[in-house]
Amino acid sequence: MSFFGELYVRSTLPFLSAEITAREVAYLERCFTDLALAGPVVDLGCGHGRHAAPLNTSGVLAGRVVGLELDAYSLAHRLPGFPVVEGDLRALPFPSASWAGAYAWYSTLFAFSDAEHRVILREVARCLQPGAVLVFQTVPYERLLEQPSASFQRVLPDGSRLEEESHFEPATGRDHGRRRLITPEGRVLSGEYAIRYHPLPELVQRMEEAGLRVKWVHGGLEGEPLTSASTDLIMGAELRHG
């Protein structure tokens, strides 16, 4: 079974409270407050629309957010209130220079091989208009170095039992994990993942190779600087000029 789909949705949503979502939505609204370009702001890998639905319903991005998602389960269970395009990050189904902005959360852009990641960034750059902003969130590389192995077991609110273990390989920059969910009916959903994490200079270089320029790096949702103690790495980028 694929890691994404029902396994990911059912095992992740219990940990994403309404408060967390509201704070992340507020951060994204601040990122796009001064947006003067025409065109959509695309939620890359929107899942069931936890960010896209509230952003498109009210506030500075009302009526402008379009979700992009490949997973059929997420599409079938998405929240109302925003349009969605079924498509692959590696071959974006949008015209060149058509986006006013884009964002991706929870390391969505990094669950691919290095070669695929380069393709994705070039595709995103192709779709951005000059002056458009890309915002994405991931976890700092140093945080994985501090705790390279992790495992836990938990009973979720619906009675499902969640088991997960992961191990980070500094040499490859990949966090490899296995997740298993046993539903109250006895169904077993399991899958593996490998997420790529970069030291900041390497990540900046990856952006530049794709034709992007880093505008800011934050270590949290209040716009605080990135430090060794940060739990988030949030980057804003735009097309590089010249």
From TrEMBL:
Keyword Transmembrane: no
Molecular function GO labels: methyltransferase activity
Protein name: Class I SAM-dependent methyltransferase
Claim: Hydrolase is one of the keywords in the record: no
Family annotation (Gene3D superfamilies): Vaccinia Virus protein VP39
Record-level GO BP terms: methylation
Protein's organism: Stigmatella ashevillensis
InterPro entries assigned: Methyltransf_25, SAM-dependent_MTases_sf
Keywords assigned by UniProt, alphabetized: Methyltransferase, Transferase
Sequence ranges assigned to domain Methyltransferase in this UniProt record: 41-131
